[in-house]
Predict the 3D structure of the following.
Amino acid sequence: MSSLRTPIWSHRLLRKLHRHALAGGLLLSTASAFRPVAAQPTASTVVLRAARVLDGTGRSLTNQDIVVERGRIVAMRPARGPLPAGGIDLGTRTLLPGLIDTHVHLGWYINGHDRMHTDDDGDTPAVSALAHAGNAWATLRAGFTTVQSIGEADNAALRDAIARGGIPGPRVLTSLGSLNERTRGGSPDSLRAVVRRFRQQGADVIKIFASKSIRDGGEATMTPEQLQASCGEATAQGLRSVVHAHSADAAQRAANAGCTQVEHGVFADNATRATLVQHGTFFDPQCGLVFRNYLDNKRWFDGIGNYNAVGFASMEQALPLAEAGIGLAARTPGLKLVFGTDAVAGAHGRNAEELICRVRRGKQDAMDAIVSATSRAAESLRLDKEIGRVSVGFAADLIATDGDPSQEIEASQRVSFVMRQGTVYRNDGARVTISRRAAGVRR
């Protein structure tokens, strides 16, 4: 079995995705996002040569050869001598683990009417499916090889199609929906039953709304008893629990209830951060991408639910709090700060903008930001033995950037090479040492 496997998705599908992405206003990473080249048989082992490696744990290495076989890293060694046939010379690029976004919404997209898709806008299931696939492809090309897409009931088909190799995209974990204080009446027993139902349907994680939207003020909505029932049942079922919580009260209730991860936390205070540390709760605040995407593109959202003048004003007011909160969280000893963008319609493929905001606006250390999007994010997903590191035994989820993002975080947007589980999905110019009978890769 080849380590640089040929994806089974077709050129025809890629062209269809491209046409729909352009017609529907999806924001792809480049205008030439879909340029597949002919696939050819590949060698069973491939060596990647990198001048610099960020291993995902905070270490920086130089002049390394990374040996990939059957989708996994099997060896790392100092670079020396000529590369074998099929080897990939990344030149001066920086190699690092595929990035991980712990909070996206792959089912959200901008439709052909230049509006956020809703259930009553007339889009057929086929059109929506293509848009979801386009979002996944844009995200993968941007260097995000794993995402947690939480909230949409129809993510299972996308997750499974990517896992089978039917379409290109990142590894997807999904909640297949969500619950809140009103779900099935909101009694602790009914909430436990909902968690079990999600588990039976194949959910990877449980998504819980414990506060109002930031556009409605963000106040706590779930009682401690409701959260204990929901998160406790998730734990009993072997699942993680991810909790939407803007207010300090809501975030503290989630941590005290043993929930796995708290999202947002715009109004988190010192007591909240201390509570998160005490319980070992992962924390995923957002810095700016989701807010800026809404505020810069109001025409896409205005008039849908609480996307109105009051809601937009609330998000504008939240921006400085969100930016400052990143720095406060990053400087809190023992706080498990992870990376998640809350990428919605229009933001897919732009995920790295959040890294830049965290470093430039939130004042998080650049290397720590990278760790939060690699090994620490993998830990939050309970995949820390599988992904998030450039290390022997780990999946060959590897990307390369033009420049060193630990020194210039903007380099995280200049992704020119993407490999996921040993398959190359993007290669913008890296030299392949190859004979006529050896491997080609897809751009």
Notes: The chain has two domains: 11-98+387-433, 103-380. The first helix runs from residue 11 to 24. The chain has 13 helices and 17 strands.
